[in-house]
Amino acid sequence: MRRALTIAGSDSGGGAGVQADLKVFHRFGVYGTSALTLVTAQNTLGIQALHPLPPELVVAQIAAVATDLGTDAAKTGALGSAEVVEAVAWAIQRYGVRPLVVDPVMAATHGPPLLAEAALQVLKAQLLPQAALVTPNLHEAQALLGRPIRTEAEMREAALALLELGPRAVLLKGGHLEEAEAVDYLAEGGRLHRLAAPRHPTPHTHGTGCTYAAAITALLAQGRGLLEAVREAKAFVTRAIREAPGLGRGQGPLNHWA
């Protein structure tokens, strides 16, 4: 039984965060474990309340999992504060949690920031260099690089530039571009791979980034190669969006069993 650990915030609506990650791990036949970083009161209309957890409690959760159940791969999601980012980076190094997928979650569609401004520099300095893969969307990549990304050409340049921050690979997601296809770029070892899928116009895309990163993490835990894992995860996410159940009165969740 392969094992995957998610280090992220909770989503009481179940569309994103730890709840979505655990569903996806199960969908791919991987035993899921978790370390909560923050708790939200959240649904398809947004985040109504948020409570960050103490860094020492986050570390204790990672230690409890790593020293008993073990991990074959892990991912991070919403981390909240600079102190939690620093604590997570320390625990990842201390307990040898590898390979690590970093989803640099910075904000929800509606609600407070999920990564404090002060935490961005800590993320870049301490967590990204430990990542086997970082999976920013365009807004997150712009924050990490401090420059706009508006075209596919700029996406290619940005994906390679993000490699210079230390991760072994970068998956830059282009879902926010106004194009007929949803195009992502995987940068690894100086090489670029273009991954495209049909775009499905729908409001029900809540948790897409979490779901995508969790699927990659589960496939890496199974021993898949990175490019194969990313391709299979993208195909899964495309189906999950297309088959979204349409729950809630706002931006609904994907179908995590697609």
TrEMBL record:
Pathway as given in its UniProt record: Cofactor biosynthesis; thiamine diphosphate biosynthesis
GO MF annotations in UniProt: ATP binding; hydroxymethylpyrimidine kinase activity; phosphomethylpyrimidine kinase activity
Top EC category: transferase
GO annotation, biological process: thiamine biosynthetic process
Presence of keyword Transferase: yes
Keywords (A to Z) from UniProt: ATP-binding, Kinase, Nucleotide-binding, Transferase
NCBIfam families in the cross-refs: HMP-P_kinase (TIGR00097)
PANTHER family: HYDROXYMETHYLPYRIMIDINE_PHOSPHOMETHYLPYRIMIDINE KINASE THI20-RELATED, PHOSPHOMETHYLPYRIMIDINE KINASE
UniProt protein name: hydroxymethylpyrimidine kinase
